[in-house]
Design a protein that fits this description.
- The structure is a single chain.
- By secondary structure, this protein is of the alpha/beta class.
- It has two domains: about 200 residues, Medium-chain alcohol dehydrogenases, catalytic domain (Quinone Oxidoreductase, Chain A, domain 1, Alpha-Beta Complex), CATH 3.90.180.10; about 120 residues, Quinone Oxidoreductase, Chain A, domain 1, CATH 3.90.180.10.
- It has a six-stranded parallel beta sheet with strand order 13-12-11-14-15-16, sandwiched between helices.
- α11 links the parallel β17 and β18.
- α4 crosses α5 and α4 packs across α10.
- The site of one zinc ion (ZN) has 7 residues, from loops.
- One zinc ion (ZN) binds next to loops.
């Protein structure tokens, strides 16, 4: 099979011939139809994750059909349809046994310290997998961990979303944001989407956003014109670039959840406002199998539609990474294998 490989930080990926791996012990061999291209893969390529061991096959958005299982696999069988976490949890630590495996300090992340998904066949430990019910669109299985599960983790598990909450979502046109709008709506929230690209507005309304504002240096003012009291929840997908305005958009008691940062810069937190308004800023890392199952259930019920900008061939991956960095897409770009 072909695999796209990162042989040096800052270099383009190279398509190389690799053997189809054989699953050992607790491992499972999966044949993928798609894998997702994530902004994290761009950051990996550019050297923002110092733990990356080279050469590395990037990618961590995994789904497909089981074609072979290791001798110790019990819960899964050949032919099962599965989706994977973006990492393999240790399975034994306090966080793992309490269902918070996203906080496992011993986890290994695909595309970072274990080989990733930019290839048709992937072996992975069974601890990383959940079963996917028939009726879930394959594209939504592929992005169940890093997009819809991740957004469910941020909005539900971390921010405590509930019906009627006013939710502001930044980076709303990206892969995560475009699905987060739908998830927030599925939970009964009212959504304001923030995008830096005016041309994406119409698309965001179609996805269910109640209001769309174009990011500016003062978008908290636009937000206060919509919601005088501010947002109960801000999902800050962009990170430092929009942090200041997002923070100013919070209501008294409002909570900002930060699942991503597209640049390595760190913003300042105005502590006076944090204290006087009783605000919370919380990090949100990836998703658990429970989050994935919630997201897959919303997908099965038709509450989330896949927002796929393009399905590309593996050989075109470098162009796709460049286009995503330049924000030319609405929604996810997938690599298609068959
Ligand atoms: Zn991802
Ligand atoms: Zn663990």
């Amino acid at each position: 099979m072909e695999a796209a490989v990162l042989n040096g930080i800052g270099k383009d990926l190279e398509v190389e011939e690799r053997k189809i791996p054989t699953p050992d012990g607790n491992e499972i061999l999966i044949k993928q139809q798609f894998t997702g291209i994530c902004y994290r893969d761009i950051l990996t390529k550019e050297g923002f994750f110092p733990r990356v061991s080279l050469p590395m096959i990037p990618g961590h958005e995994l789904s497909g059909t089981i074609v072979e299982i290791g001798e110790d696999v019990e819960y899964f069988k050949k032919g099962d349809h599965v989706a994977g976490l973006i990492y393999v949890p240790c399975g034994h630590c306090e966080n793992c046994i309490s269902g918070n495996e996203n906080l496992c300090a011993f986890k290994k992340t695909m595309g970072e310290n274990i080989q990733g998904t930019y290839r048709e066949y992937v072996t992975i430990n069974q601890r990383a997998l959940v079963k996917v019910q028939q009726g879930v669109p394959e594209e939504l299985a592929t992005i169940a961990a890093c997009v819809t599960g991740m957004a469910t983790h941020a909005l539900d598990s971390v921010a405590g979303i509930s019906p009627g909450k006013r939710v502001l979502i930044t980076g709303a046109g990206g892969g995560v944001g475009s699905h987060a709008i739908q998830i927030a709506r599925a939970y009964g929230a009212e959504v304001t989407a923030v995008t830096s690209s005016q041309w994406k507005s119409e698309e965001l309304y179609k996805l269910g956003a109640d209001h769309v504002i174009t990011a500016s240096d003062t978008f908290s003012k636009d937000l206060k014109a919509i919601w005088a009291e501010g947002a109960n929840i801000v999902m800050e997908n962009t990170g430092s670039a929009t942090f200041k305005e997002s923070f100013r958009s919070l209501a008294f008691g409002g909570k900002m959840v930060v699942p991503g940062n597209l640049s390595p810069a760190s913003p300042e937190i105005p502590l006076g406002i944090l204290i006087l308004k009783g605000n919370t800023v919380a990090g949100s890392i990836s998703s658990t199998r429970n989050d994935m199952e919630k997201a897959l259930l919303l997908s099965l019920k038709g509450k989330i539609k896949p927002v796929i900008w393009d399905r590309i061939d593996l050989k075109d991956v470098n162009t796709a990474l460049k286009n995503i960095k330049e924000k030319k897409n609405v929604g996810r770009v997938l690599i298609r294998f068959s």
